[in-house]
Design brief:
With 475 residues, this protein is of the alpha+beta class. The protein folds into three domains: 210 residues, no CATH class; 153 residues, no CATH class; 82 residues, no CATH class. Strands 1, 2, 3, 4, 5, 9, 11 and 12 form an eight-stranded mixed β-sheet that branches. A five-stranded antiparallel β-sheet has the order 6-7-8-13-10, with helices on one face. A hairpin with a 2-residue loop joins strand 7 and strand 8. The N terminus and C terminus are likely disordered.
């Protein structure tokens, strides 16, 4: 059964219209206990040593020391299970987990990652990539949002049909809801998600995309700029949402083809009566299949949790709007905090972290409202200066070129690798390096005849260019 913590309380029919999407862009953030994780990564032969320090705290005292709380026993057990036996130890109020891993990294904080080193005689290249929590199935999330939009629309259509279905212009309203309104909800979800993604790098994204969606609604005539004063009164802190009801009534009448000067059908009076509107809407929801399904789920869970409160009809809309605007957790509390430190001999070739004192450092809040999962990456290369100077006269491969070379050499099979390494070990600095590279052929032919040419070209391009001279001087 879904947690009522994500519900949006007090939904009325008015809240269902696209214009009211603007009321949902602000989340209530409160101080709460959170978990703190620090991951330290250090290369070791054959893999990486991973040290995870973690604890739970509720703020800090006056000296800046965390106010520690008991760490979840279930989470502690889950972390212990992915580390070697005896790898998790308690250090005062904190826990420290240590282990060596090759390839896949443990799912300790939540997510998936990998750490790989490729070794060659010319140097090494390494790659680190890790996702922490979140959902990276964008297609699945979009389908979920659109399904929620369809369910909300179907509920609104069902309610309006029960209230206005006998009116002459109802077919027009039905068409508007089934087509335009349904599409507006889906676009609202996409605008909301896109704003969240953009906010990861643009602090003005929320404002811009709220404005974009306002423009979207203005173009379609769902709202008018002249309605701004009433919208302000409704959505300002402590505002009265009932001031929107005349606007909703006007919109419904317009979609039914009722002239602005003409009398309104008596059935539309409910749209200007907050109490009657709320009662009618909740009664309709209580008879819906979605609410009956929530009741069945509650009855099942109540067997093991007798104190579990029964869901309310409005919880149906809370769940649907939660799905529509996911990730969105209205009362999600304080996010867990994450720091990752990757020790390297040199600054990485590429990374989305910061290079500080011999480490790549990342830090983020693991916010459940985050539109995209936290993702950290780095790749680096360490040339074998001694070998390269001994056989080429200088360090000719470094950075991205060395990384590419390491990938290439590790694509060779065992016999080819041995043959290539032997060839390089016999090279000496001099003018004939190019000729020797051009003449080399594998005894064990690779299936891809172009495979050798890729490696050969990497070295040929890295060799110092020859300067052509003649007795008359350079030209």
């Amino acid at each position: 059964m879904k947690s009522t913590g994500r519900n949006f309380p007090g939904f009325s029919v008015g809240r269902l219209l696209p214009v009211l999407f603007l009321a949902l862009v602000c989340a209530l953030v409160t101080g709460c206990p959170h978990d703190d994780y620090t991951v330290e990564l250090k290369s070791v032969p054959g893999g990486v040593e991973r040290t995870l320090t973690f604890y739970r705290a509720d703020g800090s005292n006056s000296n800046g020391v965390p106010d520690y709380e008991e760490f979840s026993s279930n989470q502690l057990a889950a972390i212990t299970a992915v580390y070697p036996t005896g790898g998790v130890k308690q250090d005062g109020e904190k826990y420290v987990a240590t282990g060596e891993f090759a390839g896949a990294l443990p799912n300790d904080v939540g997510g998936a990652g990998s750490y790989t080193n490729f070794t060659t005689s010319l140097g090494d290249a390494g790659f680190y990539l890790e996702r922490f929590r979140g959902n990276d199935d964008l297609a699945g999330q979009t389908e979920k949002r659109f399904h929620a939009a369809d369910q909300i629309t179907d509920l609104v259509i069902g309610w309006t049909q029960s209230q206005f279905g006998r009116e002459r212009g109802y077919a027009k309203l039905h068409k508007f809801l089934d087509e335009d309104f349904r599409q507006d909800l889906k676009n609202a979800a996409l605008y909301f998600w896109t704003a969240q993604v953009s906010a990861l790098s643009d602090t003005n994204a929320d404002e811009e995309f709220t404005t974009r969606f306002c423009q979207y609604l203005l173009e379609r005539g769902d709202v008018k700029l002249s309605d701004a004063p009433k919208l302000y009164l409704a959505f300002e802190e402590g505002g009265d949402e009932s001031v929107l009801l005349p606007l909703i009534q006007k919109l419904v009448a317009e979609k039914m083809g009722i002239p602005a000067s003409g009398p309104l059908p008596k059935s539309l009076a409910i749209l200007n009566d907050p109490a009657a509107l709320e009662k009618s809407w909740e009664t309709y929801l209580s008879r819906s299949g979605l609410y009956r399904a929530k009741i069945r789920e509650w009855e099942k869970e109540k067997k093991t949790n007798p104190k579990l409160e029964a869901p309310k009809p409005d919880d149906v809309m809370g769940d649907l709007f939660g799905d529509l605007l996911e990730p969105f957790d209205l009362f999600g509390g304080e996010a867990d905090h994450l720091t990752v430190k990757l020790a390297l001999n040199h600054a990485p070739n590429h990374s989305n972290g910061k290079w500080q004192n011999g480490q790549v450092v990342w830090t983020d809040d693991l916010d459940p409202n985050r539109a995209l999962p936290v993702l950290y990456y780095a790749d680096w290369s360490d040339p074998d200066d001694q070998f390269q100077k001994a056989h080429f006269g200088d360090v000719i491969l470094d950075g991205d070129d060395l990384s590419e070379y390491c990938l290439w050499q590790n694509s060779l099979d065992g016999n080819q690798t041995h043959e290539w390494d032997s060839f390089l070990a016999n090279l000496q600095p001099g003018d004939d390096l190019r000729e020797k590279l051009e003449a080399f052929q594998f005894t064990f032919k690779p299936a891809d005849t172009n495979q050798l040419e890729i490696g050969r070209k990497l070295l040929m391009d890295a060799l110092p260019k020859e300067i052509e001279t003649n007795s008359a001087g350079s030209k």
